[in-house]
Design brief:
Shape: globular
Organism: Romeriopsis navalis LEGE 11480
Strand order of the largest sheet: 3-2-1-4-5-8-7-6
Subcellular location: Cytoplasm
Family: Belongs to the endonuclease V family.
InterPro entries: Endonuclease-V
Pfam families: Endonuclease_5 (PF04493)
Strand content: 25-35%
Radius of gyration: 16 Å
Amino acid sequence: MLRPVLEYRHPENAKAAIALQEELRQQISLQDDFGDVQLVAGVDVGFEDQGATVRAAVVVLQLPGLAVVESAIARRPTAFPYIPGLLSFREIPVLLDVLAKLKTTPDLILCDGNGYIHPRRFGLACHLGLLLDHPTIGVAKSRFLGEHPALGEVAGDWQPITHQGETIGAIVRNRTNVRPIYVSSGHRVGLASAIKFVRQCSTKYRLPETTRLADRLSKQDGVL
DNA sequence: GCGACAG
DNA sequence: ATCTTGTCGC
């Protein structure tokens, strides 16, 4: 069971959303602050009815081994448009719904989207982690912000991503000769640990098993 | 003004 | 994110 310690506040418009991000970002911790990690959750969000419905899926895996412990799905009406930089206001509500359905309490959550890799350093993973006061990591499938040195081609290769003079995350090659993923801190997990956990949750695919299975669960409506 | 732009 | 089949490549 995972419940928010901070109530989710829904902004009326983009301007209010940005102001809220500026306020909440002050409370994010980029330091490791967790105990033994034995249960890792992966969450993913998708849409139905031409975008009118938001759907979230969560899969909890054991560490080590990545055995599936449990999973859940939730749906609700979409209440915020997609605006780059304001993604969390579109996905957080249904993510809180689905996480509340868990009977176990994962020690760490891997999100489908960025955390600290964000114009105001408050991406989806940061927002979710702060509301739950739980360790979170952001894992994005495509580039959003920042620059980085050339990346090697071997699985495990990575390079820091910087933006306005600050290291905000890392581009990680999770599989040899396959497109990289973008990893960043959400809340209570430092970048080095974030990369370590993402690698620990990965096997033979581009994405870590957590997000990969959550994505499959979401698209196949409950079938793993 | 122009181009970029997580999901 | 979603609309969509076969096809090139390891």
